[in-house]
């Protein structure tokens, strides 16, 4: 059983190396962050 577990782990590592599973929703920024909100505007341009 231990051998089978290692074999499955190696197969998953090889599959991930050959065809990585990229999920763009993990890395997509969904809007301005808290630092932008603290500045008071979304473009960072001061209105003087």
UniProtKB/TrEMBL annotation:
Q: Would you say which domain of life the source belongs to?
A: Bacteria
The entry's protein name is Uncharacterized protein
